[in-house]
Specification:
Blueprint (H helix, E strand, L loop, with lengths): L1 H8 L8 H11 L5 H16 L6 H13 L3 H13 L6 H13 L3 H13 L6 H13 L3 H14 L6 H14 L4 H15 L5 H13 L3 H13 L6 H14 L2 H13 L6 H39 L6 H75 L6 H19 L7 H13 L6 H13 L3 H13 L6 H13 L3 H15 L5 H13 L3 H13 L6 H13 L3 H13 L7 H13 L3 H13 L6 H14 L2 H13 L6 H13 L3 H14 L6 H12 L4 H13 L1
Helix pairs in contact: 2-3, 2-4, 3-4, 4-5, 4-6, 5-6, 6-7, 6-8, 7-8, 8-9, 8-10, 9-10, 10-11, 10-12, 12-13, 12-14, 14-15, 14-16, 16-17, 17-18, 18-20, 19-20, 20-21, 20-22, 22-23, 22-24, 24-25, 24-26, 26-27, 26-28, 28-29, 28-30, 29-30, 30-31, 30-32, 32-33, 32-34, 33-34, 34-35
Protein name: 6355_t:CDS:1
Family: Belongs to the CCM1 family.
Organism: Diversispora eburnea
Amino acid sequence: MNSYKQLFNSEENNLLMEDDYYNAMSILRKSTSKEALNLLYRMIDDMHTLGIPPGRRAYHSLIYANGVHGKPLEAWGILDLMKKDQVELTTFTYNTLIGTFKRMSDSEGALRAFEEMQQNGLSPDSSTYNTLIDLYGKRGDLEIAIKFYQEMIELNKVEPDEITFDVLINLYINSGKYESIQKIEELREDISKRDITLDTTTYNSLIKMYSKSNATSKVFEIYEELIKKEISPDKSTYHILLELFIKKSEVDKFMEIYRLMKSKGIYLNFKMYDMCLPQQNQELQQQINRESKQQNEGLQQQNQALQQNEEGLSELQKNERLQELQELQELNQQQYQELQQKNEELQLNQELQQQNEGLQQLQQQNEELQQQNQELKLLQQQQKELIKNNKNKDNKDNDNNSNYRNQYRNLKYFFFGLRKEQNLVKEFLQEMIKKEIEIEPIVSDALIGICVDNYNVNGAIEIYDMIVKQGKTIGIIPFTNLTKLMILSRRENDAIQFYYEVKQTQKIQIDVQGYTTLIDAFIKIKRISEAQRLFGDMLREGIKPNVKTYTTLITGLGQQYDYKGVKNIHGIVKMDINVELDIGIYNALMDAYNRCGHIKQVLTIWDLLVANNQPFNNTTVCIVLDSCGFAKEVYKLIQIWKELKRRKFNLTINNYHSIIEALARNQLFEDAKHILFNEFISAGFTPEERSIRPLLNFLHDRKGKSKDEFQVMQWIIY
C-alpha cells in the first residue's frame, strides 16, 4: 500500500490514467487500514480535480472498502455521491451494499437496501438473493431465508445457481432439525431438474450428514452421483467414507476406498491412520488363514489317498510315503511361519511409517516455528530501530503509536493462519515463555488479537493472564477490543472490572477511538449508564471527544428517552470548539429530542440549519416532518414542505411517507390525498402499504367516509 501512497502523493500524479486509479482502488478496497480508506476518498477527489469522472468501479470500490471497515451507513452514503455525479445505480451497486451489511450481520440494513433497490426499479439477481439467504440463515432465521428462496424462483423468476443450493443445503444441515433431511431431498430433486452441479465441499457435507444418520444407501447414492458428474473427491470425502466403513465393519469396501486413495496420491491423517491400521491387519490375517486352510485341506486329501493305497504298499513304500508326508508338513509349517513373519514385518513397517510421518510433521512444524521466530526477531529489531531513530521529542509518542499499530497489524496477520488453532496459539506462547524468549508487547497483543477476532473471550483472557504473570503489559488496541468483546458477549460486569483493573495496574491510557468503541458497545446492549460513566472518565483524563463519540452517546440517550442526558451532551457539544459538527450529529440530536417529545428543540436545530445554509439529508427531512406531525405544528409542516419543493430537494419515498402521515395525523385529508395522488406519482414512486395506511386510518373515524374511502381504494386498484 505504501507504494500506492507514494505514487498518489507525488507531484506526477497528474500523469496517471483512469485505469491506474481503478487498478489501485481494486487493491486498496480490501485493506483494513484506515489510511487506505482515506486514500480511496482522496483518489475520488483527485479524479474530479483532474477532470476524470469517477465511474461505477470507483464508487463500488468505496462501498466495498467501507464495508471492510465496518461502516455500512457510510457505504450507503456513497449512493448519494453517485447520484450527485450522475452515475447510474445498478443491481451490482446494491449487491455490493447488501454484502456490506451482511459482513456486519445487519439483516435490517440489508433488507432496507434490498427494498430501496426494488423501489428504484432494479431487479435483484441470484447474487442478491444468495447474499440475503446466507445472511438470514447464519443468523438463525431459516424461515426468512427460505422465503427469500421462494420469492426468488416464484415471484421474480430468478434462476438459482450452484451457490444458492450450496448455501441452502449447508443451512439445513447446520440447523440440526429433524425435517431438514426431507427438505434437503426436495432441494436435490430441484438441483437434478435444473442440471446444476454442486461443489465437493457440499457433497462432503451431505455424505457426512447421511453417515451420521446411518443411512448407508444414501451415502453410496451421493458418492455415485459425485463420480457420475465427474467431480473429484478430496481427502475429506474419502475420510468420511472410511470412517463409515470402519463403524459398519465392511472391510472389503474399506479396502477398496483405501486403495483408491493411495492410487490418487492421497494419504491419511493421524486420526484415520490409527483407525485404518487394524482393518488392514485384519484383512492380512484373513488372507493368511485362507491360504493355511487351503494347504491343510490339500494335506488331508493326501492322507486319505495314502490310507486307501496303504494295503497295496510294501513297508518300504510306506516309509518313503511317510517321509514325503513329513517333508510336506515341515514345508507347510515353514511357509506358515514365513507368512506370520511377513505379517509381523508389515505391522512393524506400518508403525515405523506412521512414526516417520509424525516426525516429518513435527519437523515441519518446528521449521515453521523457527521461521516465525526469525521473522518475529526481525520485527522486534525493526521496532527498536524505529524508536531509536526517532529524534523529534514532541512527535515521539504519536510516531511510536503509529509504528506500533502497523507492526501489530502485520504480526496479527502473520499469525492469521493459526486463527483456527487456538491451542497451537497458546502452545506457541508457552514455548516462548519456557525458552525464556523475551515476549515483546507486539507479540502478546497479536496473540490476544487472534482470540478476539474469533470471539474467544476465555482464550484471550487466558493468554492475558499468562502475559501478566511474566510481568508484561497489554497494548491499547487488544485491551480495547477484548473489553468490547466482553461487553457484546453480555459479560458487561466482567468487562467493567477488567477495564478498571487493567487501567489501574498497567496504567493504560486509552485514546478517543478506544473510548468511543467501548461507549458504542455499551449502548448496543442498552447499558447507557456505563456508557456515560466511560464518557465521564474520558473527560476527566483530558481525552477530547470527537464527532463520532458525541453522535454515539446522543443516539443511546435518545433511545432511552433521557432528555436531561441529551440536553447535557448537547451543551458540551456547543462548548467544544475543537469539534467540527456534521449532519450526522445534527440528525442524532434531532432524533433524540423527537423521541423525548421536545419538538421545539427539533425545530430550532432545523431552523439553524436552513438559516445558515448548512447541508442536510433525507434523514433530517424525515425527522423534522415526523416531529411536526406529532406536535401538531401544521403551519410549520406545510412551510417546510413548500420550502423543500422550492429548493427542488431530492425527496425520497420515505420523505413522502412522512409528509402524508403527518398531514393525515392532523386531519388534513385533502392535502394528504393531493400529495399522494399527484406529487407522489409525479416523482416516479409506486404506492405501497405505508403510503396508503395513514389515509385509511384517518377515514376510519370520519363521517361520510364511504366516498373518499372508495376513491382511495379505486385509485389503488387502478
